[in-house]
Each structure stands twice: as structure tokens, then as C-alpha cells.
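We include the pair:
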Amino acid sequence: MTDFEKIGDWLKKNITKKDLFGMIGAVFLFLGTRLYNILLLPIFTDEGIYIRWAKVAWHDATWRFISLTDGRQPLQTWGTIPFLKLFPNNALLGGRLFSVAMGLFALCGLFALLYRLFGKKTAWIGVLLYIFSPYFLFYDRMALIDSGVNAFFIWIILFSVLLASSLRLDVALLFGMVAGFGLLAKSSVQMFFAVSFFTGFLLIPYGKKPIQKAINYLLLFGISFALSELIYNVQRLSPFMHYITDKNGTFVMTFGEWIKSPFAVLFSNLKTVPYYVFAESGWIVVPFACIALFFLFKKNIRLFLFFVTWLLVPYLGISAMTRVLYPRYIIFFGTLLVILTAYVLGEIKNKRILTVSLSLIIGVFLIFQYPMWTNYQKILFPPVDRGQYIDGVPVGYGIKEIIAYAREKSKEKPVIILAEGNFGLTGDMLDTFLLPTDTRISLQGLWPLTKNDLLAHQKDIGKNYVYVVTAHYLTYPSDWPIHLLQAFYKQNKEAAIQLFELTK
């Protein structure tokens, strides 16, 4: 088992006071980049859903597995609750701080992984690249699980390396725990765990008794797998666990479907995956990563095969079977690019060349990052992400202002808000900004919103203010009894959140 005295001796020998100050500085730099203007970007549909789940689970323990009703694993729901407790009057901040914490978890894992594989110099370079990468900066500031998935990706690679090289039981147990919690984040973690099993064989120090070492690795990995499954199956406490399979089928083809049509999405995804990853990573790391693979091929064939496997197996698997693909689903490829780029920079002996190269990369990163802190409408994203977070229907531009208006009106008399959409748009996003003190505001999500819904609530006019919030269309039937108060248009003017008052 773990010898803590040996760990202490290792830390004394390898971690200097300079390193400690560097770690503190890196944490402050990370938090500064993540927290500055973290609420600048308007709420996004999925954020509203996940934050509402956390609010429900916080106040009602019987709904701790509420995310499973939509086939989503519960880790984000549970992890968001402590931040909601810290910031009960700012649920969006609480939700986004969960991702900040996951980003810090990823940063720690990346430092440890690079230190283990390539040494301290490369580890520090990797830390800087992670902090300034636009891919990670954006998703570390959104109330989504993808930052957490990326963190578990890093830690799974780290523990697969440690397990293969040490063949220790304590490492296997820790590996199983990490993988188990990762499986409670998102189904894609299953793929990471599976790939880690095969890549582990590449790093076993065979030497004498290679067959015995391979068998030991199999047994230890089996222990890790069993422990991860034990943690994962805590979801069986809920009657909704079976919805995970149904939800996965929405995004990924089943094996039977793939057999019938193996090329249905392959060629499209083969082009889309690298475009998404390169664009959101800022492009600049791509040539450095390619050079790194060449160096690894020359210097360490095992590590070359290790990283090629991590690149190709998920790439081909995702390309062959993924129906619905967004850049945030494949954020872990950005991590692989950072790891490889850090490695090749770490191999540069000339300090001037290293400084110029690192400055060039971070300079390009900052060009991509700057709008995330100052003017989100100018973020350099592929069209698919601009549609989700900036221009399209899912963006909650104006939601906060609508609730603020309703709060002010509720001082006069109760307010009823009829929201177009009872899942995400617009009900859940509006719910995110409701405060515990907003007892005079009631919110009802309706989908689809119809004229009959409006007529049914006309009886409430007089004793209440009744407002209607829409998001899906720019125009609505002229015979609807609604009067437009304000429209919050997206940048392209093709979508808007609209606030109406119900009339008689």
C-alpha cells in the first residue's frame, strides 16, 4: 500500500520552494482567467436545465438523481449544489463555478501527468498552455459537464500510466475510484477507460518475467474496473437509470445500427472532428503537436504508439458512430494537443527559441481569448458554437433582465410568467435567475405554447401581472392576446427573447 513517508521524501527532493510559489501563482492565474467577467456570456439553454436540476436536488433529497430523468449522469448536479449554497442569490455563478473547479482539477492532473512522462519543465509549459488555451477557458466558465469530462480524461490517462508502470494495488484502487466518479459525469468516460486498458500494455516495464507482469496488470486493471462499476451503479438507487441508454442512443449509433449502415456519419465526422478541435484550440498548437509525434517516433516508440492510440481510437470511433456532434463533446482532443505541444516545447534547449515559441502560442491564444472576457459576440468560434452560445435560439440574451423587471413589478402585485418551453427554453433559464425571496413570482413552462394557454390565463389578469416570454420565433399569430414590451435580439437579428404582457 501507499508509503506516505516515501511520498514525503520524494516531495522534499523534487518540489522546491520556487515550485511552491509557482504553483500558487499558477492557481491565481488560472482563477483570474476563469473568474474575470465569468457572467458576461448570457445563459445557455443547457445551463438552465442543469442549474434547475441542482436547485431541485438541493432542496429535495428524493430528487438527487433528477438528471437521470433525462438520461444524464448526476455528478454535475451533485457537484453544483455546494456552489449554490455558497451563492444562493446567483445560481448562474454557482453553476459556472462547478466548471471552474473541474478546470482546476484538470490543471492539477495535467501537471502531474506531464511531470510523470516528461519532467518538470514540460509540466510547467503544459500548465501555461492549459491556462491560456481558448478551448479550456471557455468551457471552464460554463455550467456544463464537459470541463469535468476533460478533467477525468486527464486523470484516467495519468492513473493508467501509473498503474502500468508500478503494478501496485493502491494505484489500482485510486484508478478505480477516479474512473468510477468519471462514469458518473458522462457516458463518454467509458471510452476513455476502455482505451486506457489497451494503452497500459504499452507502458508496462516488462524486463524479466514479462508474462507475469502482463497478468498482474490484467488483474489490477480488473480491480480498477470492478471498483469503477461499483461506484457507477450507485445510480441504481434511482428508477431512472435505464434512461441513460435511451439518451446515448440520441447522440450515438448503437452497434446494430452501425452494422447496418457503417458509413452513415463517418465521412462527415472525419472532417468535422479535426475542424472543431483545431478551431477551438486556436489552430497554433496543431503543427507543434505534429512535430511532437515525429520526435516521439524517433525517441520513444512506446509513447508514440501510446499517444497515437489515444488520438486515433477515439477519433475513428466518434467519427463512425456519433450522430450529434458539438465541439464541447470532443474537448479532450484539445488536451492531447496541449500535451504534445508541451512535450515538443520542453525538448527545446535554446531558451530564446523556447521563449519565442511559447510567446507565439500564448499570443495567438490571447487573440482567441480576449473576446471571452470583453465582448462575447466577437468570440472566434465555428458557426455551430456561435449558433449555440451567441446568435441562435438557445442563447438566453435578456433572460436576466426579464426576471429583474418581473421582480420590480412584483412589488406592486404578484407576477405570473408563462414561458415558451418547459425544458431549457425558456422556463429553466428564467428559473435560474429566480431568487429564494421571489415568492411573488410564479413561473410556468409551456410547450408548445398555444393560444388556448393564453386564454386560460386571462382570468389571472387584474390581481396579477401576467407576462409571456418567448424564444422560438420572431413573430406570433396576430390573434394572440399579447402585447410586446421588449425584444432582446441576438447579434444576427434572426432570433430573440421576447417579453409580452398578456391582455384581455
